[in-house]
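Q: Could you fold this chain for me?
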Amino acid sequence: MTIEPDALEAAARERTGLEDLGDGSHREGLERLCESLGKDGDLTEIGEMTLDFRLTMLLASRLGIEDTYRAHPEIDEQEIEGPIVVIGLPRTGTTALSQLVAADPQVRSLRTWESAAPVPPPESATEHTDPRIAECAAGIEMMYESFPRMRALHHAEATTATECQDLLGMSFKTFHFDGFAHVPGYTDWVVDCDMTAAYEYHRRTLRLLQWHCPPNLWHLKTPVHMFALDALVAAHPKAVFLWSHRDPAQVLGSVADLVHYTRSWASDRDDATELGPQQLAAWSEATRRAMAFRDRVGDDRFADVFHADLQVDPLGALAKAYERLDLPFPASSEQAVTAWAGAHPPGCHGSHEVDLADFNLSADQVHTAFADYLDRFGS
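A: Sure. Below is the predicted structure, expressed as structure tokens.
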């Protein structure tokens, strides 16, 4: 069994009864991903079946989006406000910061259930009762039952904010596929490919999701945006950024451990010794690019949020960041964020500490790779 682009597209068309996948901008990424999965992934039979299904569902979502736009071209007239984009190294508090922003009622976040199944477009009248919510919740629970370490590694709920990886995944241009399997051929390509069309499709999907389900001030999050912030801003010219900061030596082991674990779902390949240096190289490069982008566009788009501040005073940290970006923070927002923070104190979903040596890394190596970043943002 191999994962083939033509077979995936045929399966998605059969599943949906639809034909149009859009402008074809997804195809190169799909081909390169499938090639790398076959060459480098060392997939088990279950792994091939799982990834085959996963990629088919991304194509099915794309088919549904194109069908909805064909029936309702007026969706393209939707105006997106913001977005407020949370970036930063993985495991630096980006999820905690993202959930605080998502608690703000003036903000529209991408929720797990609608990321997994964006069509039909959500409706305000049913956004809390949509049957896809229960389906998504069941899928998350099944994941936790099958892979119990994920409960401590990454907390997810159907109705809370999620990373916008699937919005890029529908174009098959996202570094997140690195967490599915060992695909160096693909990741070497994707971090330097032209991301323009992927972010245009990202915007296209947001317009569809907000069409009947406002508000229109979006909040988004994923660390992989740091690889291509120019393309993101080309698609979202008014984007502003909340940048989460923490000592990279305190997070890189956790990043490598998470990737090592999720890759094990699809392969018996043990790549722990090479994984640490590979993740270090990737994320130090992403950080370098984000810093270079910030130097070009200026500091006005950025608010820095430090992990220690988020742990001690989450409301104060968010309020300060909003003020930095000239975002309103009315009493209704403060009350909602306070309620969320009170119900989700730091560490409520457990902690995840990993020895860097387990992944062939040392703190000195990490600090050397991130020297410019630490000079700028380190304490």
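A (continued): The first helix runs from residue 5 to 16.
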